[in-house]
Amino acid sequence: MLESSNNSELPVIPEKRYFTIGEVSELCGVKPHVLRYWEQEFTELSPVKRRGNRRYYQRHDVLMIRQIRALLYEQGYTIGGARAHLLRDDTLEQTAKSKAFIHEILNELEDILTLLK
Predict the structure, then answer these.
(1) Helix and strand totals (H; E) in the chain
(2) Pick from 16, 12, 23, 11: which is nearest to 55 by CA?
(3) Over the stretch 68-91, which tens digit does the pLDDT of each residue have?
(4) How many CB atoms lie within 10 A of CB 19?
(5) In what order do the strands lie in the sheet with 54-57?
(6) pTM to 2 decimals?
(7) In this structure, which topology does domain 6-116 adopt according to CATH?
(8) Which of 50, 53, 62 is nearest to 15 (CA)?
């Protein structure tokens, strides 16, 4: 994931399972209303919602928010551009995983073929 220079100035993410919107706001340097707006714009952001519609973010959400923040505030992307950038990165990651999986299957099939011979 993208780690920008200004993101290193942000506080260290504590070892917790869930974070409130206030905690994430402080950890990422973004106001809570901006986080709620980004949830609508970036489908990758999906905090757990519990009683009273309270949001609870997980560590991967906090990292995603920091990445979005870096794209928008530091690299000058628009919302649409940041969305496309994240989608492209996700597509590249999925392609790499797919290739590795196919390679693994081919190796297993070759092993089975040698056993059958």
Answers:
(1) 4, 3
(2) 23
(3) 999 999 999 999 999 898 888 766
(4) 22
(5) 19-20, 54-57, 48-50
(6) 0.69
(7) Multidrug-efflux Transporter Regulator; Chain: A; Domain 2 (1.10.1660)
(8) 62
